[in-house]
Amino acid sequence: MGAVDFQTDPxxxxxxxxxxxxxxxxxxxxxxxxxxxxxxxxxxxxSYDLGVDIELHDALQRVRFExxxxxxxxxxxxxNRIFCSGANIYMLGLSSxxxxxxxxxxxxxxxxxxxxxxxxxxxxxxxxxNGTTAGGGYExxxxxxxxxxxxxxxxxxxxPELPLxxxxxxxxxxxxxxxxxxxxxEPCRHVLHESGWRPRxxxxxxxxxxxxxxxxxxxxxxxxxxLETRGAERSPFRAKGxxxxxxxxTIDEAGLHYTxxxxxxxxxxxxxxxxxxxxETVKEDSLxxxxxxxxxxxxxxxxxxxxxxxxTLRASELDWGSGLSRRLEVQRRFSPSTNSF
Length: 341
Known about the structure:
about 350 residues, alpha/beta, five-stranded mixed β-sheet, 14 strands
């Protein structure tokens, strides 16, 4: 199969829509059934594969970097009576063990990114679950700060992997229910049932119940936005965002080549050498120059390149990740002029 490309932008999204209203951003999932990253399955009922999560990861990064005015993010669905049914079962059935492992890693890292943005970037997330919220869809909602379940008499939250498939939730569902939301054993039992849990009680830890439309979720998001700050010295509404321009990258038989990161692989030995370097001279010697450089600031560009390189290796060179012979070596080149690597 061809290499997986983790670079995208909102104009190329197939499964998500990103909209802004003052300090509130809305991420709407509307998965295209025929838009799978691999052939052989349909993404029905807002189920997702790696391609869906690549777009979600990109959207989250753009909110954090390009839109400092945003303080609250709503995640909701465009489909009627279905928020998200989780990872696509048919995709998992057609995938190798190595692919499934790396898919679950990236999916969980995306959810961790939501929680990291909430903890460190002054962003709060609200899941407006308009319909069935199951499996990985509920895990996505659990990563948010608040969950609002639209009261349409069919909405429910559940982790049905255990009774239906005999597997534990793969991207942090049980951990987020018990350790993060402090839900006791009895409510957890209902969530793990295949029919799920509907908010019949006053408990708001699994999900809070609201009316049949999403207006309360929007109001709650604006209330949260007024209480948050992005931590800037000046008002976030006057701060300048950083446009995440496409990375400058070439791929050939020798490896992956970026401006500050170089990957050389040896497929026979199943090894890769990643070389990270700093520029010989640094022009951005003040905060103003760093802001003016934007995505071309070498430190940010290097970090994005390294992230893209590791993700590409992990998803596209699956043979390297399934045996004990896997070895990933990172070399550092010291630059005396910058006192950094």
